[in-house]
Amino acid sequence: MRRPVFQKDEKIFETTEAPFFRAPDRYYASVSVLAVILLGLYIPIAGRLGFKVLLLPLLTCIVGAITEIAGSLITKKAINYFGIASWLIFPFLIPPGLPIWMSLTAFVLSLIICQILFGGFGKHIFHPAVFGQIFLLMNFTKQYNFSFLKPFDDAGFGFSAFTSMSFTDKSVFKQLAMGMDLPLDSILLGPNIGLGSEIFPFLIVIAGLLYLLFGNVNYRTPFAFIIVFVASTIIGRLIFPDKIMPVLPALLGGGTLFYAFFIFSDTWTGSKTGIGRLLAGAVAAVLVIVIRSFSSNVEGVMFAAAFTYSFSPLYDQFALSIDRRAKRKS
Q1: What mean pLDDT is predicted for residues 157-170?
Q2: How many CB atoms lie within 10 A of CB 69?
Q3: What is the pLDDT of residues 214-255, one digit of tens each?
Q4: Of 42, 141, 220, 252, which has fewest CB within 10 angstroms of its CB?
Q5: Do residue 72 and residue 132 come from a single domain?
Q6: Average pLDDT over residues 112-133
Q7: Are residues 310 and 252 in the same domain?
Q8: Does the global pTM surpass 0.90?
Q9: Looking at the structure, do residues 75 and 152 belong to the same domain, yes or no?
Q10: Could you tell me the residue range of the domain that residue 50 belongs to?
Q11: What distance in Å separates the CA atoms of residue 239 and residue 236, rounded to the nearest whole number?
């Protein structure tokens, strides 16, 4: 009796252990550029708010390293890369007056939930810094909303004081969201009351462009986000003039630019295909406008980022399907 003939399987895809798309030297070179750029942002902010601004990233780096090493020992997973970018970015996403213990607790839990439980850095689907910000907002809502600080009048006084003690819940972006008219030049130049990512918007623009130029990161999502955000805001203002903020205040406030340059440029948690990255930026831009305009939460960008990370594989699948169809037609 002859054995049945089976069709030979062809190996279509080849996978490797993640992370597989970045060489170590390129990754740490990119992180070094990020560290230098963010340090240039931390210094002027500390001069206005106190040297607590410089202490917090030092603590997040120490706690981040300890948490990731401990997680590696417990899960017996080797550390391919440290998530240094999250350590440096997280302090920009929280109100500067928030108690240090609260900030560090949220950050450690975000590393455990988003990174260590997924197998370590490179296998996570959510940006730990963004998840930490959402964790703080959802679990320490009152403290989060009342931990904004009024800057010192003297640009360098903060280097001689631990922190400003002038607490307020009226961030500049909240004032703009309530319809208050503030001079655009003062909003752009700062110092503004708000998250670390929105105190000096013009510095964020300069630092963000430098990061995209020299950081070897994803530039498609940031540019798609900004372009679609501006276009959608203009169109939305024509339809819902009482709901949607004007373009410049919406772009300069709420950490929008910081997310565009330093969060959506991330190559690990975002889409991997060119079309997927463009689609991710476009969807995130529309989501930010919708959440800010039609919900009770003005901090829409963090939720838009979480949504974008969740559906990144679908964006890539859509991009690959387009590519396959194009190849069939050709």
Answers
A1: 91
A2: 12
A3: 988 999 999 999 999 999 999 999 999 888 989 998 999 889
A4: 141
A5: yes
A6: 88
A7: yes
A8: no
A9: yes
A10: 22-169
A11: 5
